[in-house]
What does this fold into?
Amino acid sequence: MRDFRETGQMTQKIEPQPGIMEIALYQGGESRIAGRDTVLKLSSNENPLGASEAAKAAFRATADHLHRYPSTDHAGLRAAIGEVHGLDPDRIICGAGSDEVFTFLTQAYAGPGDEVIHTEHGFSLYPIVARAAGATPVEVPERDRRVDVDAILAAVTGRTRIVFLANPGNPTSTMIGEPELLRLADGLPENVLLVLDGAYAEYVDGYDGGAALATPRENVVMTRTFSKLYGLGGLRVGWGYGPRGIIDVLNRVRAPFNLSGTQLATAEAAVRDRDWAQAAFKLAAEMRVYLVQGLRALGIACDESFANFVLARFADRQEAEAAEAFLRDSGILVRKVAGYGFPQGLRITVGTRQDCDLVIASLKAFRERAA
It folds into this structure.
């Protein structure tokens, strides 16, 4: 084999595509505390009830078929999703979490020279997938921790290709109503894709996550996940719903076996178990009110939550970090969210009544110690 060093030719260094090295490595919610066997993990917005018994049974039933390739069309899962949500299965795409659907969308519809809009406190993955596609992420301000539709519309340029919007938002837990969503969709140019991230949509009674907007329009896509309400975060299953033309494009860049048979069967059983979904919703809806009230009683600011977590806001970063450390010492893990623009905030997953009581009692002790 010829050694180019012997020829005197310059060898070039292998470099990633522009924008890749601007991506900060994602840091997930912690799950362990050194020296502790028992930890209350409230850092990743997980369902405290876990997965349903039907989902667990479906998971176990796949063990004898692990040598078989899964279906490439995800027909069974798409049919179940369509049946439960009243949607056309042919307009549904499934991915390894809704994260993968975001990747498909930016890969297919944005690239070098294009812009992708997201809000300042939006999900951190949006700028990541934009940069990975070679596009430029454009951050727009929110107003009082809520999406500002006027700010989004004002940021649209001839280079804008995608607008990502989490509703309800993470880590804010706030949301905008359907009139504002409609105003946003109406105000965008037809060649700009509006992606409505409904990861927490199931926690809002009567909210369809944007399905009614996506059904008649050619430039709106809704995404959902099985990681939150259905308790399948460990399996990574999500889906998107949109115009047939866009779904057809996404299926062309999707790997044929992106979801395993285990993922598909378990998610199908989960979405069909409506009693479990209702129980998980009821618990989160009751306990988020209870937790917000408990924190406010301690003088800790919280907005009304439309998700399965609350954003607790302290006086400043120093107090937030001290509170996080105190909770950690008490065996409770929550999420610091300085990277989302809230150095004074802590995102706390809504757990069971016992979980919420432990958080409130610990923060009460923290406040009393600091007094």
